[in-house]
Specification:
Order of helices and strands: HHEHEHE
EC number: 3.1.4.4
Radius of gyration: 20 Å
Helix content: 25-40%
Pfam families: DUF599
Keywords: Hydrolase, Membrane, Transmembrane, Transmembrane helix
Protein name: Phospholipase D p1
Oligomer: single chain
InterPro entries: DUF599
Largest sheet: 3 strands, parallel
Number of helices: 4
Structural class: alpha/beta
Length: 142
């Protein structure tokens, strides 16, 4: 570990990638080396981790289906649908934030507007950001 600290101090700090106090680029907080994350849908224990107490849930992706079943077989685990789990957590007072990719409908048919509408109907604690607005931000140049 001594060589790693030396490498950081000698190479990365002078280049501006790190500062000597451990901040990365323009961040106002230190880089976390062991952040706590919960990934759901990988195995049966993932749902147990998610359903337990939380204060906020952040979901992002370029495609999200609210009717997604997280466990199989579907008929045995009807409560494992993503929208029903989000509704359950929202009713418990958890704030849910979803960032969806706003596609150009001429090029990509992932129907993110449908997903946004379904998610917003779940509960008032669910907030959805549809980003980017290609035409207003001049991201798409035709």
């Amino acid at each position: 570990m001594e060589w790693r600290k030396c490498y950081l101090d000698v190479i990365l700090v002078p280049l501006g990638f790190l500062t000597s106090i451990g901040y990365h680029f323009w961040l106002w907080h230190k880089v976390r080396t062991q952040p706590h994350t919960t990934i759901i849908g990988i195995n049966a224990s993932g749902r147990g981790n998610w359903v337990n107490g939380m204060m906020k849930i952040f979901i992002t992706g370029w495609w999200l289906c609210p009717e997604l079943y997280l466990r199989r077989p579907f008929d045995s685990f009807s409560t494992s649908r993503l929208d029903s789990l989000l509704e359950e957590k929202a009713n418990q007072g958890v704030q849910i934030y979803v960032l969806l990719y706003k596609e150009v409908s001429l090029a990509l048919k992932i129907n993110s507007l449908y997903s946004m509408r379904i998610l917003l109907k779940i509960h008032e604690n669910v907030r959805v950001l549809h980003y980017p607005d290609h035409f207003a931000a001049r991201v798409l140049q035709i």
